[in-house]
Amino acid sequence: MSARFSSEEFENLKRLLSVYEWGLAALMTKLNIINDDLRSYQENSSIDHIASRIKAPESIAQKLHSAGVEVTAENAKKHLRDIAGVRVITSFAKDISFLVELIRTMPDVNIIDEKDYINTPKQSGYRSYHMIVEVPVFFSGASENITVEIQLRTSAMNFWATLEHKARYKYREHIPTHLSDELAVIADKIADLDQRMYLIHEIINLINE
Ligand code: 0O2
User: Fold this and answer.
1) Are 88 and 50 in contact (CB under 8 A)?
2) In contact, 84 and 140? CB cutoff 8 Å
3) How far is the CA of 46 from the centre of ligand 1 (A)?
4) How far is C-alpha 90 from the geometric centre of its chain's CA atoms?
5) What is d(CA 88, CA 150) in angstroms, rounded to the nearest whole number?
6) Measured between alpha carbons, how far is residue 143 from residues 20, 83, 87, 168 in Å?
7) Residue bearing the CA closest to ligand 1, atom 30
8) Measuring CA to CA, how many Å separate 131 from each of 88, 115, 141, 206?
9) What span, in angstroms and rounded, lies between the C-alpha atoms of 202 and 155?
């Protein structure tokens, strides 16, 4: 089985990715409105920044191939839930639960799945809150639902995940034990740091009041 899209399937994928881009843009508008609104009345917004991406065709093909399914646009839509991805970066872990609640109540955003890797971190030390949501996309003469993976994490968790992801890529998923052990220790320290920074933030807020 090929690990690449045939030229015909690549054309189908291009069309599919346009639909994902439209759906992602609609979701980003909702999240940016929340961010702007929070900034207008919070001294320090719950959201530090928001980023989004559409998965590259090569990564989509690779993921389908690894899953043992044929590399077609139809299978991409059927088997992958992270073709469209959003990352919401906050200052503090407490902001994440607040934002998750807001996302749960968004109209036209259907929650498919949630994974709490903050209360239950992965063995690697990875911490983030994941939501898989479905958003409808209306375009000329048709409508389609697409899924988007929303990852919510603090700046410190993001710093760790970015470095660990780089290590995974560099070592082709087989990070040497001494490095993975060290990363796991640092992940715990980061969680502790996040909490201590939050306490200082709360004390400053109390003084301001
Ligand atoms: P990339 O290159 O970031 O896109 P699924 O991804 O849904 O097929 P699974 O295992 O259910 O499979 O998803 P999971 O565990 O919720 O992870 C999805 C994404 O979370 C990953 O996407 C990563 O972005 C991130 N992630 C999960 N675990 C780790 C980890 O240990 N370290 C880091 N740095 N990131 C992690 P991809 O497709 O694996 O990678």
Assistant:
1) yes
2) no
3) 24
4) 13
5) 7
6) 12, 18, 25, 38
7) 126
8) 11, 6, 29, 32
9) 18
Q: Given 3-state DSSP classes, what are the helix, strand and coil percentages for the chain, each rounded to the nearest 5?
A: 55, 20, 25
Instruction: State the Rg of the chain over Cα.
Output: 19
Q: Which residue do the tokens 């609640």 mark?
A: 101
- Cβ(144) – ligand 1 distance below 6 Å: no
Per-residue pLDDT of the chain (209 residues; tens, 9 = 90+): 789 999 999 999 999 999 999 999 999 999 999 999 999 987 777 899 999 999 999 999 999 999 999 999 999 999 999 999 999 999 999 999 999 999 999 999 999 999 999 999 999 999 999 999 999 999 888 999 999 999 999 999 999 999 999 999 999 889 999 999 999 999 999 999 999 999 999 999 898 77
Q: How far apart are CA 141 and CA 186, in angstroms?
A: 52
How far is it, in rounded angstroms, from Cα 17 to Cα 60?
A: 11
Q: What is the distance between the alpha carbons of residues 88 and 113, in angstroms, rounded to a whole number?
A: 17
Q: Is 65 in the pocket of ligand 1 (CB under 6 A)?
A: no
CA–CA distance, 96 with 154 (Å, rounded to integer): 8
- pTM assigned to the model: 0.95
Query: 201 is written with which tokens?
Result: 């933030």
Q: With contact defined as beta carbons under 8 Å apart, do 72 and 12 qualify?
A: yes
